[in-house]
Design goal:
Order of helices and strands: EHEHEHEEHEEEHHEEEHHEH
Number of domains: 1
Number of strands: 12
Helix content: 25-40%
CATH topology: Spore Coat Polysaccharide Biosynthesis Protein SpsA, Chain A
Number of helices: 9
Radius of gyration: 17 Å
Structural class: alpha/beta
CATH architecture: Alpha-Beta Complex
Strand content: 15-25%
CATH superfamily: Spore Coat Polysaccharide Biosynthesis Protein SpsA, Chain A
Largest sheet: 10 strands, mixed
């Protein structure tokens, strides 16, 4: 690549995951890749630990700004062609960045794209989604037989996961966005602390171009699903859901 690429990782506790993520990015990101690590005032001061081990740009915050506002801290610093949003529980490989950049190069009408995301055992995580609805989110939380079709439709399970296709929702665990688009739309909406900011930014990016699923690249995601085990996280998700519906319109199904 004859242009620069950037990526940001927002870290908050869970130092083991974060170290593995940053290590994989520094190993496979490439010479033209600039990595920004934003520490959301984590108790373990992960940013300080990583700073001693890896060459990257570090932003150590005095408070926890949340996922989207954390990533927004790099907006004024970016001079890249493409910017990657990366969760601190992601592992990339030698082809991830290269293949997604090539995809974006060959699809100038695409503003934002997500790769194939795999569980550590190699099975597919369905992250290229359709627009959220109330019942699709209920189906993700309450596993009842009559809701399975609703959940499957939301996760686009009818689509071939080995073929690229247009999507409504690029999940925030890992995606690439044109840097000029990221800046034009003002990054993530700061009204969200956590959850649905990725659905929101996809909708904003789609005002500038298409959103696409590109399985030419893949990553491994150590998915923790904290909403299933934490009442606080679940309530944050509900709050963000209503922010999203207020902004983009309520959908029952």
């Amino acid at each position: 690549m004859d242009y620069s690429v950037s990526g940001s990782v927002v870290v908050y506790n869970k130092p083991d995951d974060a170290c593995k993520t940053v290590e994989s990015i520094k190993k496979y990101g490439g010479d033209n890749f600039t990595l920004y690590v934003i520490d959301n005032n984590s108790a373990e001061k992960i940013g300080e630990t990583l700073q001693k081990s890896f060459d990257a740009q570090y932003i150590l915050l005095d408070e926890n700004l949340g996922f989207g506002k954390g990533h927004n801290q790099v907006l004024d610093r970016l001079e890249s062609k493409y910017h990657f949003i990366i969760n601190p529980d992601i592992l990339i490989n030698e082809n991830t960045i290269k293949n997604l950049c090539r995809f974006m190069d060959s699809h100038p009408d695409v503003a934002i794209a997500c790769p194939k995301v795999l569980h550590p055992d190699g099975t597919v995580q369905y992250i290229a989604k359709r627009k959220p609805s109330l019942m699709s989110l209920v189906a993700r939380r309450i596993h009842l037989p009559f809701l399975k079709k609703v959940e499957d439709d939301y996760l686009a399970k009818d689509m071939d996961q080995d073929t690229d296709f247009e999507v409504d929702f690029c999940t925030g665990c890992f995606f690439v966005i044109r840097t000029e688009v990221f800046k034009e739309i003002g990054g993530f909406d700061p009204d969200y602390f956590l959850y649905f900011e990725d659905a929101d930014i996809t909708m904003k990016a789609k005002q500038k171009g298409k959103a696409w699923y590109a399985p030419c690249a893949d990553v491994i995601h150590f998915w923790h699903r904290e909403t299933a085990s934490s009442k606080r996280m679940f309530m944050l998700q509900v709050k963000s859901m209503f922010i999203y519906f207020k902004k983009w319109g309520f959908r029952l199904f």
